[in-house]
Design brief:
15% of the residues are buried. The termini are close together. By secondary structure, the chain is mainly beta. Helix content is 8%, strand content 41%. It is elongated, with a radius of gyration of 18 Å. It folds into two domains: 78 residues, Roll (Chitinase A, domain 3), CATH 3.10.50.40; 49 residues, Thrombin, subunit H, CATH 2.40.10.330. A hairpin with a 2-residue loop joins strand 7 and strand 8. The longest helix is centred in the first third of the chain and has 7 residues. The strands form two sheets. Strands 1, 2, 3, 4 and 9 form a five-stranded antiparallel sheet that branches. It has a four-stranded antiparallel sheet with strand order 5-8-7-6, with no helix packed on it.
Length: 144
C-alpha cells in the first residue's frame, strides 16, 4: 500500500538545516509524528514528499523555503517600545517568545536587537527563508 491523500501516517524523522544542525526530530518528542496526509497539518513540502511511499520505506529529501515556512519577509521585522514587555523580563537578541496579534492569533517571534527603549522583533517563523533537510522512515500507514 502506498501513501495517498487522506491517509493517516506515523513517521520517524530528523530535520536538519544546511549546516547539519538538527532543528527537530521525532526522537526528541519520544514518538513518531502522526498526521493526515494533505490536511495541512505539516508543511506542504513534507506532505508532498511522502506521497507514494510505503510502510517501512526510508527517504531523504530537501524542502525549499517556499514549500516550508516561506521566504524571510523583512517587513515582518518591527521596532516596538520596551514597555510592551513585562518589566522584569530580560530582553536579549535571539530570545524567542509568543507574540499576540490584533486578531488574537499568537505567532512565534524573535528579538533581533535591543536598544534604549526600543526592541526589534522578527515576526517571521524562525525557519523562514531556510532550506530544510529531512531523513524519514514511514512507521505506519492507516488507509483512509
Amino acid at each position: 500500500m502506498t501513501i495517498k491523500q487522506g491517509d493517516k501516517v506515523k513517521i520517524e524523522y530528523t530535520g536538519t538545516l544546511e549546516d547539519g544542525t538538527i532543528f527537530d526530530s521525532s526522537t526528541e518528542h519520544g514518538n513518531p509524528l502522526e498526521f493526515e496526509v494533505g490536511s495541512g497539518q505539516v508543511i506542504k513540502g513534507f506532505d508532498d514528499a511522502i506521497l507514494g511511499m510505503r510502510e517501512g520505506e526510508e527517504k531523504q529529501f530537501s524542502i525549499a523555503p517556499a514549500e516550508a515556512y516561506g521566504e524571510h519577509d523583512p517587513t515582518l521585522v518591527q521596532k516596538v517600545p520596551r514597555e510592551i514587555f513585562p518589566p522584569d523580563t530580560e530582553l536579549v537578541p535571539g530570545l524567542l517568545f509568543e507574540a499576540g496579534l490584533p486578531t488574537g492569533e499568537k505567532v512565534p517571534a524573535t528579538i533581533t536587537e535591543v536598544q534604549e527603549g526600543i526592541i526589534s522583533v522578527d515576526l517571521n517563523h524562525p525557519l523562514a527563508g531556510k532550506k530544510l533537510n529531512f531523513k524519514i522512515k514511514i512507521s505506519v500507514i492507516i488507509s483512509s
